[in-house]
């Protein structure tokens, strides 16, 4: 496995962990995965900072619909930066997602995330054929 592959694998592992209910409900685990300067442009249009997203995750009711990720792809943009793109489905609420993961002294942490509502994988196959293009998250 190359250094680029290892960086992408670490970011994918962190992203999938953040989608799981056992991590989302643990302030300690979310804290370990979010960069101190974390920002998110949510699928709702709301802008989130680290403190507000952690508060929402803490207060979320367990047992909500699972978040299923598909089509996850990653590319290492710089030695300390990985870009991931993927789709999610949470009980019929679908979104295209884009995340930037930065390597810190504490490991890879989510620096920026954006979610854009979408229809069920509309146009997904057409974009996959263009290797040089990144999908909108």
Report what the structure shows.
The chain has a six-stranded mixed beta sheet. A hairpin with a 5-residue loop joins strand 1 and strand 2. The C terminus is likely disordered. The protein is of the alpha+beta class. 31% of the residues lie in helices and 41% in strands.
What is the alpha-carbon Rg in Å?
15 Å
Order of helices and strands: HHHEEHEEEEH
Q: Roughly how much helix do the residues carry, as a percent range? A: 25-40%
**In this structure, how is the largest beta sheet organized?**
6 strands, mixed
Note the total helix count.
5
Beta content = 35-45%
Task: Categorize the overall geometry.
Answer: globular
Global structural class: alpha+beta
Kindly report how far apart the N and C termini lie: 26 Å
Strand order in space, largest sheet: 2-1-6-5-4-3
- Beta-strand segment tally: 6
Low-confidence stretches: 123-137
Q: Could you report the average pLDDT, rounded to the nearest whole number?
A: 86
